[in-house]
TrEMBL record:
Subcellular location: Nucleus
GO molecular function: DNA binding; protein dimerization activity
Alphabetical list of CDD domains matching this protein: MADS
Stated name of the protein: MADS-box domain-containing protein
UniProt entry keywords in alphabetical sequence: DNA-binding, Nucleus, Transcription, Transcription regulation
Composition skew (Polar residues), residue ranges: 169-179
SUPFAM superfamilies in the cross-refs: SRF-like (SSF55455)
Membrane spanning stretches: none
Domain of life of the organism encoding this protein: Eukaryota
Region Disordered, annotated ranges: 166-195
Main localization of the protein described in the UniProt heading: nucleus
Family matches, as PROSITE patterns: MADS_BOX_2 (PS50066)
Pfam family, one: SRF-TF
């Protein structure tokens, strides 16, 4: 039967923490020895305890350790793109780049949720009701265009003139950010027809 999983959290009790550290350190050194023996690879580790002792170096052979460190530094300087050393700053840079790539999609999704391009009630309308709605929308668009033209004439701006931001604020009325609503009257005699 396998031992129960130990929760990965900080051990508050100092004695327990030191005992766990020693046990796990011996375990990782044993695994490193096995890996070096079975796969014929060079392995070195620097183990720093939290009690400010001198760091322990595995493997105990100082020449082997120095050779491995020098080889690592040399390889890293020759071809840094081949030898990845993934530090905390690298993690944050990769995360930042990933988030910057996802940002436009998130903005588009937010805009689509905030300003839907389709209203669900339109699915339930008949063809006749949709045609009447379209003609009502065209009438509203025509009214808005006429209002814009009259405001341009009253403010002394030539029709069909492109306005800069300052002129636009003077010539155009304030816009209400509420969704478009069209009031449609129903015939009292026939509830299915729209006027």
């Amino acid at each position: 039967m396998a031992p129960p999983k130990v929760p990965m959290e900080f051990i508050n009790d100092v004695k327990k923490r030191n005992l766990t550290f020693q046990t796990r350190k011996q375990g990782i050194i044993k695994k490193a020895n096995e890996l070096a023996t079975l796969c014929d690879v060079d392995i070195s580790m620097i183990i720093c305890a939290d009690d400010h002792q001198q760091p322990e170096i595995f493997s105990p052979d100082a020449d082997k350790f120095n050779r491995l460190v020098n080889r690592y530094v040399q390889n890293r300087s020759i071809a840094p793109e081949k030898n990845r050393c993934y530090g905390l700053s690298d993690y944050f840079n990769v995360t930042k780049i990933k988030m910057e790539k996802e940002l436009p999609n998130a903005k588009n999704n937010n805009i689509e949720e905030k300003f839907p391009t389709w209203f669900d009630f339109l699915d339930n309308l008949s063809e006749m009701e949709l045609r009447e709605l379209a003609s009502a929308m065209e009438a509203k668009i025509s009214c808005v265009k006429n209002k814009i033209e009259s405001l341009k004439k009253n403010s002394g701006i030539q029709p069909n003139t492109v306005l800069d931001e300052g002129q636009r604020s003077m010539a155009s009325p304030s816009v209400n950010n509420s969704p478009i609503m069209i009031v449609m009257e129903r015939d009292e005699d026939d509830p299915d027809t729209v006027k």
